[in-house]
Amino acid sequence: MNKPNGASAGRDENQGEGNWTAAKAFDRDQKKFAESGKVEPAARDAERALDSAEAPEMKEAERIGRSHSHGEDPALNKKK
Fold first, then answer.
1. H-type helices in the chain, by residue range?
2. Cβ proximity of 6 and 21 under 8 Å
3. Among 38, 6, 39, which residue's Cα sits nearest to residue 25?
4. Under 8 Å between Cβ of 15 and 2
5. Whole-prediction pTM
6. How many angstroms separate the CA atoms of 68 and 18, rounded?
């Protein structure tokens, strides 16, 4: 199966094993953010939020997210 180009692939079109268009956009946006100089301020804001009134809501969102997880990938903790 050939990878569709961004022009011919519909936004919600099934692209086989993954959505290459979305993955490419995600990677591009993450790189742009990392290079923007906004990472440190965002990290400080997130740390402050953990000590704010929104902390319980954030912890609940994390709990819900983790409930959908299948756990850590064992390969991440593999001894070399």
1. 20-35, 39-49, 55-67
2. yes
3. 6
4. no
5. 0.49
6. 19
Interatomic CA distance for residues 73 and 53, integer angstroms = 33
Q: And the tokens for 45?
A: 């804001």
State pLDDT tens for residues 9-29.
Answer: 455 666 777 788 999 999 999
What's the DSSP call for residue 3? P
- Rounded CA-CA distance 48/41 in Å is 11
**Radius of gyration over alpha carbons of the chain, in Å?**
18
pLDDT < 50 stretches in the chain:
1-4, 6-7, 9
Q: Do 50 and 57 contact (CB within 8 A), yes or no?
A: no
